[in-house]
Amino acid sequence: MIDRINRLQLRSPGPLGERLGALRRPDGLLVAGGAALGVGSLLAYGLSGFSYWMLAAWVAALAVLSVYLWRRDRAIPHIRLFDVLAAAGVAVAFAPVYLISLYRYPVQVSSDEVAIIGVAKHFAEAGNVDPFGVSYYLGRPTMLFMAWGRLGELLGGFDLYHMRLLHALFGLLTIAACYALLRQLLPLWWAVFGSAVVGACHSMFMISRLAMRENTSILVEVIALALLLWGLRHKNLLATFWGGVIAGLAFYVYFPSRATFPLWIAFLVVLALLFRREFPRRRLAALGAIGLAGFVLMAGPIVIAEAKAPKTDSTQPQRDSVMLFKLGRDKEQEWMFKSTFLEAYKINVKWGLTAFNNKIVDHGFIYDNPGHGFVDPLTGILLWLGVGVVAIGLVRRRDDEGALLALVSFVILWLAFAFVVNKAPDYTRLMITLPFVGYFVAQAVRFAAGRWRTIRYAPVAIATAALAAIVVWNLAIARDFIDLGKRNGEPIGSTGRYLAAHKHTPGEIFYIATSDASPYYSFGGTDTAIDRLMLFADSPTQVGAPIDPFQLKTFNAPPPLALFMTRAAWQTAAGELASAYPRGRIRNVTPDGGRVVLEVPS
Q1: In the chain, N or C: fewer CB atoms in 10 Å?
Q2: What pLDDT shows up at residue 453?
Q3: What pLDDT is stored for residue 295 in this prediction?
Q4: CA atoms of 450 and 9, how far apart (whole Å)
């Protein structure tokens, strides 16, 4: 690949061609060695799997190629101290929204939270794990769970609070990273404005308050695009290479971030068509190839691992979510309860195209906040105004390639989530559009403020009022979700918090009456039910074996104990349990009384 770039660039003069022409000098051995190590590591992984020799060759390839590209151009980004302070300041400003009362609110605990915490704990404690491979959890990449587990340990352990804290901290880091990208597209204070729009989005901060890993998709996306864009503008080979590497890293985090490098390639194609004079095609081809080299080196192992994994429904997430595959089409029809796929598809397209302006709840079933959509109504209106302003600016050549990157990326994602990806709108998938949403909202308000620039302080007042309205509106939407949990409770969260509040009673054992035929939770088997209790316990000995609800009449265990049941299960065995435990008392676990607990003191 490097040789092809060399032959291509030597035909045209210019700084980039001269730097790449240096491949014919003796230090060309350096890049040849790096390329050989990279190809060798991928071949070794494909043929014999993971080994420390393969890992050493892979790391060496990254290091050698980076040293070579650094030698070709030692330019580094000029980062102003004020930009660093601005990025940190936006993140700090939103810290209370992301961090305060994480354990208590939201009351709702997603089943995915329990699963992700358990998988992260497993890989943090396991030995001889392939970091590039697929995990046992739905075939998702292992690398993120390994990192998530180690970071969770450093923060304090594998409980609900500390794992929520980890995700929330990554949310704040994502806001700062968004500034790094938006600062290349906007003036300083408008970049702050756009980053604040991202941080203030209720979907962003409420999902970040859950023990998930979804915001890693945005973090990797914006870092990769920031490096790639800087490398493009400054003809910097090292930044372009590492932009491709980070885009490859997107294959190891939350799945939607895999769109990052395809978005970049699509942008380069459109750029070559619309900005021919500013960006010659040979230059774009050269930089694209260098970014591709970094991308392939990073993403190659997981692509190999997924290709070798068993082709089952649970290990092929793209087949489950993308309607190009039959499984994805079948899932869409099943979720929409329609007799034909075409009926379901039409609804998916409609809800996907209006995802930023409708009030359809999260079809990922992670953040179910009835009456509200993915973004607040004001953001939804300003978004399309900003899209129009940027599109007209590009047609009239007032805007540059940064605006084109945002427009191309957003339009592709918007259409893909409607026409190609099912379950629209899925909020956790839509999160990768937020950096572009923040950009377009900033452009819309900037345009409106510019109409009043002749009046002193009017632009500042307009921008401040718009941002304040967005923040307050999103806080109000988030409060509705929190109030919903406080008012109605939630089986996993309410049961777990009851256990946590009573687990310090000496010798108390917690039991749960559940079975596949009569489950305590709305879904999940007996093992899942025990895992959900164990998340809140201090020790496995505090949780007893599950009890078949149909055997409650003969239940006999020494007190002190707490027995969780559904209201229906309690009513069938109330007499026998009352006789067996005359000092016991029944209490509601959820406010509606659907789940109850029998408390028996010692």
Answers
A1: C
A2: 84
A3: 97
A4: 43
Nearest C-alpha neighbor of 439 from the set 480, 493, 402: 402
- For residue 141, give the 3-state DSSP assignment: strand
Neighbours of 103 (CB within 10 A): 12
Beta bridge partners of 600: 561
Could you give the CA distance from residue 208 to residue 201 in angstroms, rounded to a whole number? 11
How far apart, in whole angstroms, are the C-alpha atoms of residue 258 and residue 185? 22
A 10 A CB-CB count for 207 gives: 22
User: What token pair was written down for 50?
Assistant: 């993971």
The answer to whether the beta carbons of residues 9 and 289 sit under 8 Å apart is no
Sheet with 585-588, edge to edge strand ranges: 509-512, 561-566, 595-600, 585-588
The backbone torsions φ and ψ at residue 194, rounded to the nearest 5 degrees and listed phi first, read -60, -40
Q: How far apart are CA 219 and CA 456, in angstroms?
A: 38
pLDDT at residue 55, as a whole number: 95
CA terminus-to-terminus distance, the chain: 74
Closest CA to 574 of 596, 545, 544, 601: 596
Residue 312 in tokens = 């089952």
Provide the residue type at 398 as one letter: R
Question: Residue 360 has what DSSP assignment?
Answer: P
Cis peptide leading into 559, omega within 30 of 0?
no
Q: Has residue 26 got a pLDDT over 70? A: no
Say how far apart CA 158 and CA 67 lie, in whole Å: 39
Residue 337 confidence (pLDDT): 87
Global pTM? 0.92
Tokens of residue 53, six digits: 């020799």
Sign of the alpha-carbon torsion through 101, 103, 108, 113: positive
